[in-house]
Design goal:
The protein is of the alpha/beta class. The chain contains twelve helices and 20 strands. Bound molecules: iron/sulfur cluster (SF4). Keywords: 4Fe-4S, Cytoplasm, Iron, Iron-sulfur, Metal-binding, Ribonucleoprotein, Ribosomal protein, S-adenosyl-L-methionine, Transferase.
């Protein structure tokens, strides 16, 4: 007679809700926290109602982001009442506790252990490895077909408008083999696009002396070019964000021309006037940068460039602003975001003289956006009539697919719309002909599979 074990009944798992605010880097932190909690047997609650505790992962980059974070904490307190706060704004525990004395715990950015401990205190885990299985790629908050891969934390710069280095510390890179192992796991789990992020992606590995690590029988340096070359061996789109134009960025362009990495660079230029860049404490040779952009485009003509800028920085004169507009016209970037300068508590720029009046910032922002819209529209028109690969993100009720080509990152750039795309689903890769464009989006028709 065989010995049988009675079937084990699962114990009810404690449920954690999460509100994730801020940038993709914060989203990656949320994913890591949830992956760890899920591994311990917690369930993720999609609503406040069902959650035993709610995590609010905050952003504290700008004062407006802090206000939004406080509002989110308030909502979670009102809707659920058992709230743990983490993320960038966690560095300002007093502000949070002044507003919401009953939050269960406040932890700062990257304090994964502390967040998990706070969750344990609030609602102990009911782990049962027999029932609680985590998919090997972890828990993702992005759609299944794309994922952010954070290659480093912190930053060695000290831009005067930014408090990230004081909140997140100096550069700390993840060794190349760790990043590659994560990337490979994600691709095996069905991810089609990996978005490489960090505060300063070009600086990757500097803190580790670009140390070599063993990966698949090869020695790989913990350095951006070498990492990209290895990532390029995976069957996925590799997209690079927050790349500062250090000299070695030139090495990436041939990899883009070869198709190893998407010909897309997100470079936060922030300004073009040497005076303003100096006040921002950023390198200021934008003429040289223009020459490099032209050289990159010669090697890789399809290169798409995205950037962000700040207008109305303290001391910015009309002359500085015009210089910025002229540079923009010369650089012909494909996609651009623009922020009006805001003081951030604790940032050095707050104490600079000659703050720009709000109405001037507003007026410059409109002029900037108008100028860039014309440039973007021109750039997008040049793509009409070309055949492109589109990664589908969503299909709407009318059967129109919405997706992106190599030149559009999710959330921040435009969209490619393809009508009569019934039968397609998120994550599908299709070939389409671009038929029309405005200043943000493209319209395309599906081409038959050959
Ligand atoms: S490079 Fe400048 S803006 Fe970016 S995180 Fe570092 S200090 Fe902040």
């Amino acid at each position: 007679m065989r010995n049988t074990t009675p079937a084990k009944k699962p114990r009810p798992a404690p449920k954690v809700g999460i509100v994730s605010l801020g940038c993709p880097k914060a989203l990656v932190d949320s994913e890591r926290i949830l992956t760890r909690l899920r591994a311990e047997g917690y369930e993720i609650s999609p609503s406040y109602d069902g959650a035993d505790v709610v995590l609010v992962n905050t952003c504290g980059f700008l004062d407006s982001a802090k206000a939004e974070s406080l509002e989110a904490i308030g909502e979670a307190m009102a809707e659920n009442g058992r709230v743990i706060v983490t993320g960038c704004m966690g560095a300002e525990a007093d502000t949070i506790r002044d507003a919401y004395p009953d939050v269960l715990a406040v932890t700062g950015p990257h304090q994964y252990e502390a967040v998990v401990e706070a969750v344990h205190d609030a609602v102990p885990p009911a782990h049962d490895p027999f029932f609680d299985l985590v998919p090997p790629q972890g828990i993702k908050l992005t759609p299944r077909h794309y994922a952010y891969v954070k290659i480093a934390e912190g930053c060695n710069h000290s831009c005067s408008f930014c408090i990230i280095p004081s909140m997140r510390g100096k550069l700390q890179s993840r060794p190349a083999h760790h990043v590659l192992a994560e990337a490979e796991r994600l691709v095996k789990a069905g991810v089609k696009e990996l978005l490489v992020i960090s505060q300063d992606t070009s600086a990757y590995g500097l803190d580790l002396g670009y140390a070599e690590r063993s990966w698949r029988g090869r020695q790989v340096r913990t350095r951006l070019t070498e990492l990209c070359r290895e990532l390029g061996e995976l069957d996925a789109w590799i997209r690079l964000h927050y790349v500062y134009p250090y000299p070695h960025v030139d090495e990436l362009i041939p990899l883009m021309a070869e198709g190893k990495v998407l010909p897309y660079l997100d470079i936060p230029f922030q300004h073009a006037s040497p005076r303003v860049l100096k006040a921002m404490r950023r390198p200021g040779n934008q003429e040289r940068v223009l020459e490099r952009i032209r050289a990159w485009r010669k090697i890789c003509p399809e290169l798409a460039l995205r950037s962000t800028f700040i207008v109305g920085f303290p001391g910015e004169t009309e002359e500085d602003f015009r210089q910025l507009l002229d540079w923009l016209e010369a650089a012909e970037l494909d996609r651009v975001g623009c922020f009006k300068y805001e003081n951030v508590e604790g940032a050095a720029a707050n104490h600079l003289p000659n703050h720009v009046p709000e109405e001037v910032k507003e007026e410059r922002w409109h002029r900037f956006m108008q100028a860039q819209q014309e440039i973007s529209a021109r750039r997008l028109q040049q793509r009409v009539g070309t055949m492109v690969e589109v990664l589908i993100d969503a299909i709407d009720e009318e059967g129109t697919a919405h997706g992106r080509t190599y030149a559009e990152a999710p959330e921040i750039d435009g969209t490619v719309h393809i009508e009569e795309a019934q039968g397609l689903g998120p994550g599908d890769m299709v070939t389409a002909l671009i038929e029309d464009a405005d200043e943000y989006d493209l319209w395309a028709t599906l081409l038959p599979v050959s």
